[in-house]
Amino acid sequence: MAIASMCSVQLGAALSRPVTMQYGTLSTTWLRLCFAGLVLAIVVRPPLHTYSRQRWSAAFVLGSAMAGMTLCYFEAVQRVPLGLAVGISFIGPLIVATAGIRRFRMLVWPMVAMVGVVLIARQDGLWTTSLTALVFPAGAALGWAAYIVMMKRVGTLFDGLQGLSMSLIVAALVTTPFGLAQSGGHLPAAQLIDAAYLAVLVPLLPYVLEMLALRRMTASAFGILMSIEPAIAAAIGFVVLGQPMLGLQNIGTLLVISASIACCRQE
């Protein structure tokens, strides 16, 4: 389920690029969250009046993390190659994975991963993008870490997909000001159609699969499993967007993946 989720996310990110370039990242991401939240709410029908303050708080934090992670990630994809965006964003899951391991020597692996990210970000001795553009994948990394921790938490507090449904509604509400500010209230029919089908690839299908996966594994193990996502992103970026990763960038990708495999072996 987790691997299927990663493939869906990266394919959705690649297919989103021309749509977000035409209509804007903020408005398109907002519409996707709205569509995903609406579909899941209709299917799940969460009983809102029965939830405790603890459940509402958890759903609010997860929804906010979803909103920040999604906005930052798709802004990153617009500015940097897909493999680079995921390579940097992956530091979030790696932190979660490392936090679950109680051995001091394991601190070496986040440093190895950081070296890998630096190599991914450089090509022929130059940065592949401006340093300011790296703010967005870094923000996505923080959001991703919070997302994994809170998705696990929400999965234990709610039955079925009720917590995910609530969190997606929160995410849609949090992103509404950004979406309306960019669109100016003008939403072409073509953008609505594109956002609707892209919402299935990201976020609806991945979030459902990841919620189910996190019910069967620890947050640390899930973070480790995410290690193959940079490789999936690089492959999809090459096939769909024609963004090959060359030279030291391939070595950097291997370092990030190897760091997570090492964590997995030590856990």
List the helices and strands and how they pair.
Elements: H1 2-23, H2 25-44, H3 53-79, H4 82-89, H5 91-99, H6 108-120, E1 122-123, E2 126-127, H7 135-157, H8 162-183, H9 189-214, H10 219-225, H11 229-241, H12 248-266
Antiparallel strand pairs: 1-2
Describe this structure in words.
It is found in: Cell membrane. With 267 residues, the chain is mainly α. It has one domain. The protein has a two-stranded antiparallel ribbon. A hairpin with a 2-residue loop joins strand 1 and strand 2. It is globular, with a radius of gyration of 18 Å. The mean pLDDT is 87.
Runs in which pLDDT lies below 50 for 5 or more consecutive residues are: none
> How many E strands?
2
The residue fraction in helices comes out at over 70%
Secondary structure class reads: mainly alpha
Distance between the termini: 21 Å
Taken together, the total number of domains comes to 1
Q: From N to C, what is the helix and strand string?
A: HHHHHHEEHHHHHH
Please count the helical segments: 12
With strands numbered from the N-terminus, the spatial order across the biggest sheet is 1-2
Radius of gyration: 18 Å
Strand content: under 5%
Mean pLDDT across every amino acid position: 87
The profile of the biggest β sheet is:
2 strands, antiparallel
Shape: globular
